[in-house]
Write a structure and sequence with these properties.
This protein is of the alpha/beta class. The protein is built from six helices and 17 strands.
């Protein structure tokens, strides 16, 4: 006898980042964890080895056929991997215990993959320990939309025995505050699903794909690296997780977290309000990466507020690496703990 339990197909709507025809100042000299190698991405493994794994199998239009674009996406992922220290448990489909995933189609503006959980290949999925899988692609989005991303949904079937109970418990990925089965997430203080998806605007003619994102030279166009940072944060739950929603005042449009304090939000309650600024590593004042828009010619990095937002929804975030550690990483030196980036 099998027991079946389902939750909603997705976490919230797809937050989007908008383009602005404005020239904004570049951030001066902020280091980015990046190398010039697409297949092997050097990263500092702090703590548990949190690993963002990109899956390009639904990029049907070939948006990521260009290696530079993949390299930039991997560089953006490396920023998160260098500071997130959560240990995520594995989810393993086996026998009667089957884990099914669904997600917004990264090659479509509105489509959803496996919405009815009838895709056999996606109905028996296993997610490795510490893996956070993100399906990516290019899509014909609205002209003023650069990208859209969201965490994915899931369904599962379990056996009616101890193995089934252990499998069900594994879906929370060893995060006690992530409880999607309890009051529809109303008590959640953490967020740790299997992953999600991102669609980037394939029809945009003025993307800027920076071959050297560690530098901040002047440029024109919409910075793909900045947009990738923004959308990955949404897949990690910023603006969409129950642990985010539980800290939002939808009338006043504010977010109140123990790390962030009380912060003004856009009316969609998924972004910091445009114009909100924050230091980066305690220095200066910069518009946040999780504002809803970015200007032509602008490069953004994750500010202290952006990192605190991740902390408030349950992610464990380490202190910023020492400057000499970043320098070694950017130089491509062999560091203890570097690992090959896995590609799905």
């Amino acid at each position: 006898m099998l027991g079946i339990r389902k939750i909603s197909n997705f976490y919230g709507d797809k937050p989007m980042i908008k383009r602005l025809p404005l020239m904004l100042a570049l951030l001066p000299g902020v280091a980015v964890a990046a190398t010039g190698n697409v297949d092997v991405h050097g990263q500092i493994q702090i703590g548990a080895g949190f690993d963002i794994v990109f899956d390009y199998s639904y990029d049907t239009g070939g948006f990521f056929a260009d290696a530079t674009r993949k390299n930039l996406l991997e560089a953006a992922a490396g920023v998160y991997e260098s500071r997130i220290t959560d240990s995520l448990g594995a989810i393993t489909s086996s026998g009667d215990n089957a884990f099914a995933i669904g997600f917004y189609d990264p090659a479509s503006a509105n489509g959803y993959i496996n919405e009815n959980f009838d895709n056999l290949a996606l109905n028996t999925v296993s997610i490795a320990a510490n893996e956070y899988r993100i399906y990516v692609g290019g899509a014909a989005l609205a002209e003023d939309t650069l990208g859209q991303g969201a965490a994915g949904g899931f369904s599962f079937t379990t056996s009616a025995d101890a193995n089934g109970l252990a499998f069900e418990n594994s879906i929370s990925r060893s995060q006690a505050g992530f409880m999607p089965f309890v009051n529809n997430g109303a008590n959640d203080t953490d967020f740790a699903p299997w992953g999600g998806s991102i669609a980037f605007n394939s029809g945009l003619n003025d993307w800027y794909f920076d071959a050297t994102p560690a530098t901040t030279e002047s440029f024109s166009g919409y910075d793909f690296y900045s947009v990738a940072l923004h959308e990955i944060a949404h897949v990690l739950g910023v603006g969409v997780a129950d642990s985010w929603v539980n800290q939002v005042n939808g009338v006043a449009h504010t977010f109140t977290g123990s790390f962030s304090g009380t912060v003004a939000l856009e009316n969609d309650d998924s972004h910091w309000k445009d114009g909100v600024t924050s230091p980066i590593d305690g220095q200066g004042s910069f518009e946040t990466a999780m504002a809803p828009s970015i200007g032509n010619g602008a490069r953004k990095q994750l500010t202290d507020l952006d990192w605190n937002g991740l902390r408030d929804i349950g992610w464990q975030v380490a202190a910023v690496p020492e400057p000499e550690t970043w320098a070694m990483l950017l130089a491509g030196l062999g560091l203890v703990g570097m690992m090959a980036r896995r590609r799905a």
